[in-house]
């Protein structure tokens, strides 16, 4: 009698690989294939993202900056005197400067970022311009549970700042997890949160399919990064940038679509792509004011004021922790 034995799938040998290597191998071994968008942001990817923020089609950055400029006095009033600002992500120095300039004697600024070098440079530049402010960079992954330094004696409120609608790049459970952690570390203070609003899908589509192809280059840089860091052999011209609005899930999805049947090698392992098969690289969820407030409430915040632009493209939320 013949006996059939299940042959276990060859285990992925990931010991000794970087987090990017481990996650890329896991993404390629899965079906459907999907990887966290945080891997976009190596140095070339961060430079491409800065260019995206300047694109005519990419409205979120300039709209949020416009709201911060228009409402700085009211936001500073809500923050109060001597406050401590905790920024999740090194962030745009422009946005934090708009807040600091309007605030009444800010006491301390704690930018949190995973990239220590980038953070140290940004913090040093800020310190030069704000001599009376204590700038205390915290090198940490803010998607994990955080422990922050104690509040300085006599400091005012501790206020979190999470601009840019990066909250939309989390899956809904990740967003809830992040907000719960933020509510915990900011207890007694508040969070100022930027969230992109649902709008005409044609405008959303244009923002992620710009005419100059910068967003496409940003997406494809993920494969270029794998070639640089993981000894991969992706042929970039054999993959296409695809970004579309998924209406039921209220999100832009970005994918890299294989233009033909092909094989790639990553960290010494071979993977096949069929024609049209994709690697899902990013979600960018869009909110209504009410859906964001409901999410914040579920995470333990008490939603307060909401500031938007005249066209209701983007929202800034004051969430009491
Ligand atoms: C950082 N994040 C909020 C951007 C977004 O719009 O979701 C990332 C981005 N992806 C493509 N363009 C911009």
UniProtKB/TrEMBL annotation:
Q: Which GO terms describe its molecular function?
A: methyltransferase activity
Please name the GO terms of the biological process aspect recorded for this protein, alphabetically.
methylation
Ranges for domain Histidine-specific methyltransferase SAM-dependent come to 21-320
Alphabetically ordered keywords of this record: Methyltransferase, Transferase
Keyword field contains Methyltransferase: yes
SUPFAM superfamilies found in the cross-reference section? S-adenosyl-L-methionine-dependent methyltransferases
Which Gene3D superfamilies does this entry report, sorted A to Z?
Answer: Vaccinia Virus protein VP39
User: Highest taxon of the source?
Assistant: Bacteria
**Which protein is depicted?**
L-histidine N(Alpha)-methyltransferase
> What species is this protein from?
Rhodoferax koreensis
């Amino acid at each position: 009698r013949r006996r059939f034995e299940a042959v276990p799938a060859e285990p992925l040998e990931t010991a000794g690989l970087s987090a990017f290597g481990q996650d890329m191998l896991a993404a390629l071994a899965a079906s459907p294939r999907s990887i966290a968008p945080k891997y976009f942001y190596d140095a070339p990817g961060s430079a491409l993202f800065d260019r995206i923020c300047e694109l005519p089609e990419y409205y979120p950055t300039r709209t949020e900056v416009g709201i911060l400029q228009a409402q700085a006095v009211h936001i500073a009033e809500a923050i109060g005197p001597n406050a401590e600002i905790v920024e999740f992500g090194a962030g745009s120095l422009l946005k934090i400067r708009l807040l600091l300039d309007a605030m009444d004697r800010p006491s301390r600024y704690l930018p949190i970022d995973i990239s220590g070098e980038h953070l140290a440079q940004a913090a040093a530049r800020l310190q030069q311009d704000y001599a009376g402010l204590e700038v205390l960079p915290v090198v940490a992954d803010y998607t994990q549970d955080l422990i922050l330094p104690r509040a300085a004696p006599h400091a005012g409120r501790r206020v979190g700042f999470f601009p840019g609608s990066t909250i939309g790049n989390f899956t809904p459970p990740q967003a809830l997890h992040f907000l719960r952690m933020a509510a915990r570390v900011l207890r007694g203070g508040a969070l100022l949160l930027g969230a992109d609003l649902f709008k005409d899908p044609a405008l959303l589509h244009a923002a992620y399919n710009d005419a100059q192809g910068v967003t496409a280059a940003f997406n494809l840089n993920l494969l270029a990064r794998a070639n640089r860091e993981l000894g991969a052999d992706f042929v970039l011209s054999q993959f296409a940038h695809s970004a579309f609005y998924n209406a039921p899930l209220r999100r832009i999805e970005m994918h890299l679509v294989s233009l033909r049947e092909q094989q790639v090698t990553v960290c010494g392992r071979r993977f096949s792509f069929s024609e049209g098969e994709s690697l899902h690289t990013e979600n960018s969820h869009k909110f209504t004011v009410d859906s964001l407030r409901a999410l914040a409430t579920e995470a333990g915040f008490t939603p307060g004021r909401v500031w938007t632009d005249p066209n209701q493209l983007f929202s800034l939320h004051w969430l009491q922790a």
